[in-house]
Amino acid sequence: MTSEFTPAIGIDLGTTFSVLARLDDKGRPTTLVNAEGERSTPSVVLFDNDEVVVGREALKAMATEPTKVADGSKRDMGQRVYHKVINGKQYPPEVIAAFVLNKLRVDAISQIGPFSKVVITVPAYFDEVRRKATQDAGYMAGFEVMDIINEPTAAAIAFGFHQGFSRDHGSPDQTHRVMVYDLGGGTFDVTVMEITGSRYTTLATDGDVQLGGYDWDQRLVDLVAEAFIRQHFCDPREDPIAAGKLWRECEDAKRTLSTRPKASVPCDYRGFSSRIEITREQFEEATRDLVDRTRFTMCQTLKAAGLDWNDLDRVLLTGGSTRMPMVRAMVRQVSGKEPDTSVAADEAVAHGAALRAGLLLDKARGKPPAFHIRNVNSHSLGVVGLDPTTKRRRNGILIPRNTPIPVTAKRVFKTQKENQRSVLVEVVEGESASADECTTVGRCTIKNLPLHLPAGSPVEVQFHYSPNGRLKVRVNVPHADSEIETEFTRENSLPKEHLDGWRRYISGLEPTNYR
Ligand code: ADP
Ligand code: MG
């Protein structure tokens, strides 16, 4: 293998399914299948004694050994530990995600040879802490994460590629305004973008990290369980094994209801056995509020972009849950447009990430970029200050949400007393005026301030949002001649030595450990 060969790889690390794509020798994105021959891999990990099993087998084990299985780790990204204890162990969510990524890596290497550079996707709505956790997951899986990219942006790039937009370099083309509606397994994202020739500009973005296909599954589980209780006076949700099995059956039935008017769900518990029939109408009735939540977010995002439905050319649907007819009907009704399903719902995001990877590799080789991306930040960034009258912790917003990035904001802090040597700045993300209702990104400690500074000396702190939504902090103290140190300690982030330890362990797992 020569060092010149570096494939352009993009990974959609999904809550429920993950997809790996590469650019072929003609620069077209293609999905690589996993060792089981599937185009997407369930993001599920089974910890079975010494063996770690990822994918379909792990998903099956959810019904029989739920205590050994971790799924949906993406929903917990940014938390210190995954919400469930597995075999008596607490794993950070990004470690579970790293096992999933490593399975994709091992399977892809067996087909195309070794590689390490990748682009991984994140929901546009992910805050800085979750973005960092995703990059760390990639690192622990043995990758070099060249960049992270927002999922709707990736979907729009894949769409643009199929439409041939990226090929007519910079021509002063017509502008297409598209809304990307992405409803996956665990997250919901809406993004309004402008595509002009090969330029992709995000105008506004919003979403809900706690809304996805899972919630529809849950409603179906409840419908079936209630019917079962009426027949047999016991609740299959009480027992983890019965509940796990019911969940799988319901997810299946949900897919059936996308194409058929009714589905029947088998349910066994305490020796009773029933097939419970659910109609699409019942299912739609039981989930109407969920669809309404997405409608609300769509309207909000359009407004934030300063647009009207008439200004939009298309609504692109991505994510497996957009196959539900109720979603399509709602989109049609609220936008007055036929939703666009021309990009493959499950693969577009990975394809866009591979195109982004190709762009970065081209750039490193000195080639002109085939397209340009401009993003906005999805959450306001602020620093915590004390309200002098109420003594409450307040969020002083520096960079409001939906600001085009990269962007830099400065804030001048003043030292409180004479000869103060350090300043502590707490950085938060969120829209609330109260700091306690926002997410803490981290604490920035400015150390080694010059000696004998008078009280009230200015310390200028610069917050820089990179194009991928990651934050950098810089400090400037006028008249300082010595080096000022800034240490940005991130909330809930694994220390470097842990990351390295996990990387050695996870990326060292052999394909035989990896079914
Ligand atoms: P993520 O990116 O969050 O992993 P995906 O885009 O892969 O999610 O979508 C997975 C979700 O889509 C799951 O909740 C799955 O049940 C749902 N889904 C897939 N196909 C269908 C279908 N035909 N009808 C309804 N839901 C579906
Ligand atoms: Mg997805």
Characterize the structure shown.
The protein is α+β, with helices and mostly antiparallel strands and 515 residues long. The protein has 3 domains: 9-168 and 345-372 and 496-507, Nucleotidyltransferase, domain 5; 213-286, ATPase, substrate binding domain, subdomain 4 (Actin, Chain A, domain 4, Alpha-Beta Complex), CATH 3.90.640; 381-480, Substrate Binding Domain Of DNAk, Chain A, domain 1 (Sandwich). The chain is 30% helix and 30% strand. The protein has helices at 56-61, 93-112, 128-140, 151-163, 213-232, 240-259, 280-286, 288-304, 325-335, 348-364, 496-507; strands at residues 9-12, 17-23, 29-31, 41-42, 44-48, 51-54, 69-71, 117-122, 144-150, 175-183, 188-196, 199-208, 262-269, 272-279, 314-318, 372-376, 381-386, 393-399, 404-405, 407-414, 423-429, 439-447, 458-465, 471-476, 485-490. The strands form 6 sheets. Strands 1, 2, 3, 4, 8 and 9 form a 6-stranded mixed sheet that branches. Strand 11 (188-196) and strand 12 form a beta hairpin. The model has no long low-confidence stretch (mean pLDDT 90). The protein binds adenosine-5'-diphosphate (ADP) and magnesium ion. Magnesium ion (MG) binds next to loops.
